[in-house]
Design goal:
Layout (H helix, E strand, L loop, with lengths): L2 H13 L5 E3 L2 E3 L3 E4 L1 H8 L3 H13 L3 E5 L4 E5 L2 H35 L9 H10 L9 H11 L5 H10 L13 H9 L1 E2 L2 E2 L1 H6 L4 H4 L2
C-alpha cells in the first residue's frame, strides 16, 4: 500500500458511520460513508487523479466497495469492525504506556527525597543497569515530532502519511515485526534526500493493510 493509499484509507475509516444513519431517506450502514472524489480531494489534499487511482486499488484489494449513485458514491469499509477494534486497542495501548511512564518516575522521585548521602552507596555502573531496566516502552510519535526530526535531519517525509501508514499495521513493519524505533524507519525505509528513495520503501509500499494485521 502506497502512502497516498494509506492516507486515503485512514480518512475513509475515520469518516465512516459508527452506527446506521439515514441520509435523505436512505439508510447508510455502520462502516459506510457518502462522499465524492471532489470532497475527498479537498479533505485529504490529494488530487482527483490520485483519489481515483487509490480508490481503484483499494477496491482491487477488497479493502472497500463502492456503490455509485446519481449524485455521489456510497463507500463501504469491508473490514470496518476489525479496523475499529484495532484503533481502540492502539489508543488503549498508548494510554497504558503513558500511565506506565508517569508511574515509573514516581518511585525515583520519592527515593531521591528520602535517601540521605550516608545511605547512598550505588556505584555508577549500578545506576546505569537500573536505568536500562526502567527503559520506557515504544510510544508512537506525534506528527510534530516526525516533522521536527525530518527537518533537523534533512529528510523529505510526509509525517502524517508516515504515522497513518504504520497505525494501520498497529506499528508493525512489512515482516510483521513490531517497530522499535520510528526514527530508524525514517532513515532506512522512508527517508528521501535529494529526490532519492530507498529500495526498502518501494518494497514496503507493495504491502496492504491486511498484511500487517496480527
Amino acid at each position: 500500500m502506497t502512502p497516498n493509499m494509506a492516507h486515503l484509507f485512514q480518512h475513509l475509516i475515520r469518516r465512516a458511520n459508527h452506527e446506521p444513519k439515514r441520509w435523505q431517506g436512505q439508510l447508510i450502514e455502520r462502516g459506510q460513508l457518502i462522499t465524492g472524489q471532489h470532497t475527498l480531494a479537498k479533505d485529504t489534499g490529494l488530487s482527483r487523479q490520485e483519489i481515483r487511482t487509490c480508490l481503484e486499488r483499494l477496491k482491487s484489494t477488497s479493502e472497500i466497495t463502492i456503490q455509485a449513485t446519481n449524485r455521489c458514491s456510497i463507500i463501504t469499509i469491508v473490514k470496518y469492525k476489525d479496523y475499529q477494534d484495532l484503533h481502540v486497542d492502539s489508543n488503549q495501548q498508548s494510554n497504558q504506556q503513558a500511565n506506565q511512564q508517569a508511574t515509573s518516575k514516581q518511585p525515583a522521585s520519592n527515593q531521591q527525597a528520602t535517601t540521605n548521602n550516608n545511605c547512598n552507596k550505588e556505584t555508577t555502573e549500578q545506576r546505569k543497569k537500573q536505568t536500562k531496566k526502567r527503559a520506557s516502552p515504544f510510544v508512537p510519535p506525534t506528527v510534530e515530532e516526525v516533522e521536527q526530526y525530518c527537518k533537523d535531519k534533512g529528510y523529505e517525509v510526509n509525517a502524517k502519511q508516515f504515522i497513518e501508514y504504520y497505525a494501520v499495521a498497529k506499528w508493525h513493519d512489512a515482516k510483521g515485526n513490531p517497530v522499535k524505533s520510528w526514527k530508524q524507519k525514517i532513515i532506512s525505509v522512508w527517508g528521501t534526500k535529494n529526490g532519492r528513495t530507498t529500495e526498502n520503501r518501494r518494497n514496503t509500499e507493495n504491502s496492504t493493510p491486511a498484511d500487517f494485521i496480527r
